[in-house]
Each structure stands twice: as C-alpha cells, then as structure tokens.
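QA checklist item 7 of 12: single-chain prediction sanity check.
[x] sequence parsed
[x] length recorded as 302
[x] structure emitted
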Amino acid sequence: MPIGTIHWLPQRSSKIGRKFILTAARLRLMILLTALFLTGIAALFFHFGGINERAQFTDNRQNELIVLRGELYQLSERVMNLRFQLEEISTREKQVLVAGAGLNLDFSQLIPQTAMIREPPRDNMFRFIDELEMEIMLMERLADAELMAYDSLVCYLMGKDSELAGIPSIWPVDGIFVSDFGPRIDPFTGAVRIHKGIDLACVSGTPIYAPADGVIVFVGWTGGWGLNIVVRHSDRISTRYAHCSVACTVVGQDVTRGDLIARVGSTGRSIAPHLHYEVLINGVQVDPEDYILREGSDSAVF
C-alpha cells in the first residue's frame, strides 16, 4: 500500500521527470540498507583501529624485548666481573693461607676453567637466563667455600700477631716486574737457568723497604749478587735483596715492616738497575709472589 510519492524533476526541460512511489516495504528496505551501510562503515573503522592497535602493541613488545635483551647482557657482564673478582679473592686467600698458616687449599675446581664468551641474547632468552643462573650458582659455591676458609684462617691466626709480623707480605720496592721465579733465559749466557727470585726494575737509588719485621744478618758483597742484604724474619724465613747501590742498615739491626734498608742499584751480575728479591724458607728459595699480599711498601694484611 503506497504511503507517499516522490517526484524527481530535472533542471533541464529536455530531461524527463520521474515518479517514485514510496511503500512501507520499500521504506523498511531503505532503512535496512542504510543501517547495514552505517554498520559496515563502523566495522571498517574498528577493523583499521584494531590493526593499528595491534601494530602498536607489537612495536611496544619489540621495544620491550630489545630493552630486556640489553639488561640481560648487562647482567651477564656483571656476573662475569663478579667471577673475576671472586677469582682474585681466591688467589689472595690462597696466598694468605700459604703465608700465614702453611695451608694449601685448592679452590680451582669451584671455578669454571674457561671463560664463557657471551653474546647478546636473541630469540632463546630462556637458555641465556639458565646459563646465568648456573654461573651465579658456581659463584655462590665459591663464595661459600671462601667464607669457610676465612673462618678457619681466623681461628688459626688468632693470637699469632708476632709471628705474622715476620711474614714478608708486601712488595719491598716500587718498581716494574720484569722477571719471575723459575726457569728463564740467562741474559748473559743465553742458557736456561733457574731464577731463584723475582726482579723489579727501578731507577737507581729507589728505596728498598723491609717487607716484614726482622733482623739484619748480612750486609756485603757476594759474587753475582753484588752488594746484597739478608734479613732474618724468623727461625725459618729470610729474605735477600741483591744488586743494591747502598745499604742503609748494618748487621744486627732490628727492622720493622716498611723500614728503609737499602737502595736499588746495579752492582754485581746486573745489566741495569733493579732489585733481585728472594724469599728463603729454611734456606731454600721459594716464589716470593706466594707471600706478597698487597701492593705498595706501606700496605699489608698482617
């Protein structure tokens, strides 16, 4: 049943006008098509909005992953630095145990033998985290072992101040380390010989300090050592200082750690100014580095 008529009149007279009869069914159809069109437009906007939101979410996740990878890599660097510090502590601790208590505990099994070269984590971050956890667990084991060793050492060393003062635990001179203890090529003959001390290159006249309390038992010239000084620190420990330019002490003089005892020179079998430094246990030369605990003539643990 018609409910109205719509007339279309063209502006030009040459065009023919048209008449559109509006019925209830046609009106409902027009409303339905308009609603569908508007719904489609709204859905299209929502669709594009969702795509943009997902793209922004993906970008945010990617940025978060990049930041997380960077933080994991920095954490890995901190773990590696902690490992190196613990290894250094373990070395110092071993020197304390050897020098102070005559103990020789081996912590090497607690330290990974090869350094783990880490790359920034990529897709497999969980594996990277597992490796960090394993590394931290090893460091915790080493720290626990060192704490136990320190506790044992404290118990052993309590009340031994006078004995510890006689352990040569500091560098006797401020110089450059040029030759260590053990086999080396003789600079005069080119043959391999056992070097029974360590050499520290210095400017001639550099002060030589006593590394521990003791008494001067020898000052004089001896063959290849040139002018040398021997200090007895205990019944079993002595030290020798060779190639001196001048002695600042005399036989029988008591010295304490840090006292000036001589000056560096190049006397005897020497090619340049340096100090040849020996530590003797019961008259036998041992590696002085096993007894040196801190750098500098005025620093010592004991």
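[x] summary fact logged: Helices lie at 24-101, 125-157, 161-164.
[ ] second reviewer sign-off
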